């Protein structure tokens, strides 16, 4: 390259404007960096401010507001950080501990859902495995009933920013109790103060040892039972088994010990689970009525927001889950969420929820109605609520 003698002078002549330009560019760059920085900060605070304003409307003391504010902020952060979780479509396939012994005829129902086939893995069980906070033992548990609508209730509740729940069923108080409370705690998602940890295992309701064990963990535990007409519940239970084992005997033949005498086989778990009054009696030895909430499985379908309102009240939470969160999916034939937890897309429960039931001989259905009637009456009396099954 040739050096021209004019170059140094040229350089000298535009060196000061270049310097100025450089300084100007540096300043602009700095300003841009500052703007970007503050924008990120602003953006991260905007949603929580919105949440604060919304929640601030009728949350009580300032402390509660700030705790909720903190939890909603963490919620937003964890939602951003968390890997979206698949919509859980798991169901309970188990032999109920309390009906396992003796003349148990529930050997047909031996298969397990996907979650249950593998040992619970804390990393995959929690609704959010990342984020701050700490793992706590559940303060509220959905204890039953199998096929009552427990999955729908838990998935709907998970929409609430102050609820964190395990996706799979831990089966701690029936099958895994020997693993100890630390094992159980480790399955839980992290929560901040003010957030409620939850799990659902529908077999607890019929497990004789479960109330004593849950009470030993904490006497303050709130328990929720989703109940459904015991006759349709039994048919639903049978339908589930049938879907896995198409060769099982008919519902009609399993229902009776002796079809001619019409004696109902109460050792069949599909029948026994529906004797709600008997199972509730066991829970009342350890928990006062005001610590047990009964959710109607039927109303959970016809008016999900109404039932969710009751549950939120029971848990001492603001009614955040409302009508606006649901839509009725004509194809599914059930209410679905407009947006599931950690997702912006509408979500219905999967194909194992809301199966078509086989046609059952109406006479057998009537016989079962007659069988359950006195137990249902007792249950209405105990709960102070007529569920309208008769
Ligand atoms: N929104 C919505 N979508 C789909 N299904 C719904 C819903 N709400 C309640 N249900 C009823 O839930 C029944 C299954 O109950 P569980 O979730 O408790 O079953 S399980 O015990 O966990 O296997 C399931 O029973 P079946 O209809 O017999 O399949 C449903 O009737």
UniProtKB/TrEMBL annotation:
- Origin, by domain of life? Eukaryota
Q: Which GO terms describe its cellular component?
A: Golgi membrane
Q: How does it sit in the membrane?
A: Single-pass type II membrane protein
Q: What's its top-level EC category?
A: transferase
Gene Ontology MF term list = [heparan sulfate]-glucosamine 3-sulfotransferase activity
Q: Which UniProt keywords apply?
A: Disulfide bond, Glycoprotein, Golgi apparatus, Membrane, Signal-anchor, Transferase, Transmembrane, Transmembrane helix
Q: Where is the composition biased (Polar residues)?
A: 124-133
Bridged cysteine pairs (disulfide)? 336-348
What range(s) does the Sulfotransferase domain occupy?
Answer: 138-373
Q: Does the keyword Iron-sulfur apply?
A: no
Which cell locations does it reside in? Endomembrane system; Golgi apparatus membrane
For the region Disordered, give the residue spans.
89-134
Q: In which broad location class does this protein mainly occur, judging by the first location in its UniProt entry? A: membrane
Q: Say if the entry is tagged with keyword Nucleotide-binding.
A: no
InterPro entries registered for this protein in UniProt = NST/OST, P-loop_NTPase, Sulfotransferase_dom
TM segment ranges: 21-38
Enzyme Commission code(s) on record = 2.8.2.-
Q: Which PANTHER family match?
A: HEPARAN SULFATE GLUCOSAMINE 3-O-SULFOTRANSFERASE 3B1, HEPARAN SULFATE SULFOTRANSFERASE
| Protein's UniProt name | Sulfotransferase
Which organism was this protein described from? Nothobranchius furzeri (Turquoise killifish)
